[in-house]
Each structure stands twice: as C-alpha cells, then as structure tokens.
C-alpha cells in the first residue's frame, strides 16, 4: 500500500501499470478536460463581480482608444499639428493597453490552478485532452466576449493602417517626370527672383544673373530645379552693335544670342547650386565640391568630381528685346540617376 501527499491510500494494482493511482481532484488540480470544460468551475469564473458591467466599461475604453487612433490618422493625413497627433496617438495606445489589461484581470479566469507534484509527466492522452481543452476554452472565451474581441480586432486593424500613413504620406508626391523635365518651355520669359524680365541690355560683359521661367520664380517646389544662370560673355561694340552669338558646341549655333549663354545652376555632381563665376577664366565654380565648368565651351567640366557638363538652355531674343527660352533643357538637370539615358 502507498500513501500520497494528500493522504489518499490506493493500490498499485488498481492502475495495472505498477504505479500508484493518482489522487482524486478537489477542483484545484488538472486531471484532464473535465476539470476545465465546465463553466461552473469556481476557478474559471472572472474576477469581476459583475462581468457585464466590466465588459461594458472595457468596451467603452477600447472604443475611445479606437477614436484616438482614427483622430490621429485623420489629423496626420491632412497635415495637422505634431502636438495633437502625439496626444491622440498616446491616448489611443494608453486606452487600448488599459482595456487589454482590464480584460485580462477582470474577465478572464483567475484560478488558482494547482497540480499535484506526485507526477511530472503527462500521458499522451492527458496531453491530447489538455490541447483540446485549451483550444475549446480559447474559442469559448472569444465567443462569450465577442463584442470586446470585435473592438480589439477593429482597433488593431485601424492602428495598423494609421501607422502606415507616414510611409504613404511623408514620402511626398511621386516625382513623375520631375526628374527629367523642368518648367522651362518654348517661349518662357527669363525673369529674376523678383519677377523682373531679362532683356538683351540687362547684363553687361562679365555679368551673371540667376533666372527662372516667368511665374515660377517664387514657387518653393520648383525653384530648385528651375534655377538657371545667364552670363554675358561678350559685350556690345562702342557703336552699339550687339556681339555675335556664342557657339558653345556644334549644333548650338543659335543658343547664345548676342553673347549670352544660360546653364542650369544645379551641379551635376551632388545638386549644389553653381553660383560663383570667374570672369577672367570664364568658368563657373561649384562652392560645395569645387567643380569647375568652362562656360564658353558648353560648361564642360574641367576640374572636380562633376561627371558631366551643365545642361545648356537655348536662348532667343524676341522683337521687344526680351530674352526667352527657345525650348526647355534637352536633358535632365542635376546629378545622374539610374534611369537617365542621356549623357
């Protein structure tokens, strides 16, 4: 005869396997599915004295947290204030965390659950029964708390979508053709940063001016790609005769009327503004990385890391003496990129 820790006496032959039989459960031990499947088991009852009331309160907390996520998403989407975005997101996360904690504390079974220490090994049948019990209990909990589960799932889905907003919105608009074209078009009037038009007498020999296409000189979204420098290499004769066109390369015989040429101000190395002009050597200098470009010969790079010349803007002078663009740049401006096909 063998005596267990609880004082129960049984015969080994009762099991037929040479081991002492397990003691009878008093409701605190895990002896298979029967002890856990019953909803009347006092150890499986929620901690809250009024589960319905607790469920309602927790539901309201989760709903307010969900509203916080929605408010954050709406405010972020329209470009709201970071302070309020932080308030709404923080409130949503806090209330959802509070609701989940309260759900676990007041609506889930609290135990205690104890197992006799006389055996530390479960039979395959007991393992299978426990697996079935856990599976069934899990489904049962969510069926009984379907309202809270629905709010939890909806809140998680909304939060996932809202957290994706920065990836969708903060990247800004797609570049589309912005990497290939500028706002310079056929007939665009050259104006300075204040909107004053450039004429054939605006610059003297050696003069340089940053210009933009008319209507875009104050556009912060396009100034960086439209900025262009116009330079007068040759001046008028003493009798007022205009100088001949500047031919920087074959095929550009009409691009530099009356001694003036125009080049993109965006360096082809790293996109820095090329704004320094050395009149005696007729070279443009990028102050960032010291790339030098020969203005008279197509802004060819003569020093520094720039990999290619500055794109040239073809110019013309209308009947009233205003300087205009014959057309836009014939190649993308700025640094190279993987889709560029021109050289």
Reading side by side through the largest sheet, how are the strands ordered? 3-4-5-6
What would CATH call the class of the largest domain?
Answer: Mainly Beta
Please describe the biggest sheet, giving its number of strands, its sense, and whether it closes into a barrel.
4 strands, antiparallel
Low-confidence stretches: 1-37
CATH homology superfamily of the largest domain = Rieske [2Fe-2S] iron-sulphur domain
Overall tally of structural domains = 2
Task: Kindly state the number of beta strands.
Answer: 12
Name the quaternary structure: single chain
CATH fold-level name of the largest domain = Rieske Iron-sulfur Protein
Mean pLDDT: 80
Question: Judging by the overall fold, what is the CATH architecture of the largest domain?
Answer: 3-layer Sandwich
Describe this structure in words.
It contains seven helices and twelve strands. The protein has 343 residues and is of the alpha+beta class. It has two domains: 26-169, no CATH class; 179-343, Rieske Iron-sulfur Protein, CATH 2.102.10.10. Strands 3-4-5-6 form a four-stranded antiparallel beta sheet. The radius of gyration is 40 Å and the shape is elongated. The termini are far apart. 24% of the residues are buried. The model is unreliable at 1-37 (pLDDT under 50).
